[in-house]
Amino acid sequence: MGEESLMLKVKRFYEDINVERTSEGLKFSLLFESYKIRDPCSKKVYGFPEGHVAVIYDSKHKHLGFPFVEEKYSHPCLPKFDVKKQTVDIGPHFYEKDIKHLSVEKKVLLTLRMAKRVLTEHAAGCEYAWHRISSKAFDKYKLG
Questions:
Q1: String of DSSP letters for 36-105
Q2: Which of 27, 63, 74, 94 is placed for a possible disulfide with 58 were both Cys, Cβ 3.0 to 4.6 Å?
Q3: Could you tell me the pTM of the whole model?
Q4: Count of domains in the chain?
Q5: Average pLDDT of each block of 10 consecutive residues along the chain (144 residues)?
Q6: CA–CA separation, 117 vs 130, rounded Å?
Q7: What is the distance between the terminal CA atoms of the chain, rounded to a whole angstrom?
Q8: CA dihedral 120, 122, 123, 127 (to 10 degrees)
Q9: How far is the C-alpha of 56 from the C-alpha of 52, rounded, in Å?
């Protein structure tokens, strides 16, 4: 499938996904609204701002990259604080088993939705996250 065809298909069927050409390939992005997550250990609630998860598809090599947060962002599942373009770990099994057989546009959609879910619902394999949230860096996100 050519780039133009893929762009049109995604724009037509998935209105919430933005598409743009970059030097790396086609960049697809999805907005996530501000959200709250509760630390299951301390029961403290943290509020996080909105942002965009994105993924780049290199049509020349037919390769879908890993999802990332476009803006400077901090989250217990991200490796650094306030850094742009951090990869969102959605788990290796997601690529190997769950989406391997799907069309490119569906892979893009599911990858973006899973990355959004990891951040906003604290899904997937982010085991180290809860001990990181007690760090001073997350104090600015504490509610109440």
A1: EEE-TTT--EEEE--EEEEEEEETTTTEE---EE-SSB--TTSSSSSBSSEEP---HHIIIIISTTS-HH
A2: 63
A3: 0.87
A4: 1
A5: 79 84 94 89 89 94 92 90 92 69 88 91 63 81 87
A6: 16
A7: 50
A8: 150
A9: 13
d(CA 119, CA 135): 17
Q: What is the pLDDT of residue 103?
A: 87
Domain residues for the domain of 122 are 3-141
What one-letter code names the amino acid at 38? R
Return the pLDDT at 6: 82
Q: Rounded to whole angstroms, how far apart are CA atoms 50 and 32? A: 5
**What's the mean per-residue pLDDT of the chain?**
86
For residue 112, how many other CB atoms are within 10 A of its CB?
24
Residue type, 56: I
89-109 tens-digit pLDDT: 887 766 656 777 888 888 899
Please check whether residue 99 is in contact with residue 110, taking contact to mean a CB–CB distance below 8 angstroms.
yes
Distance CA 137, CA 19 (A): 33
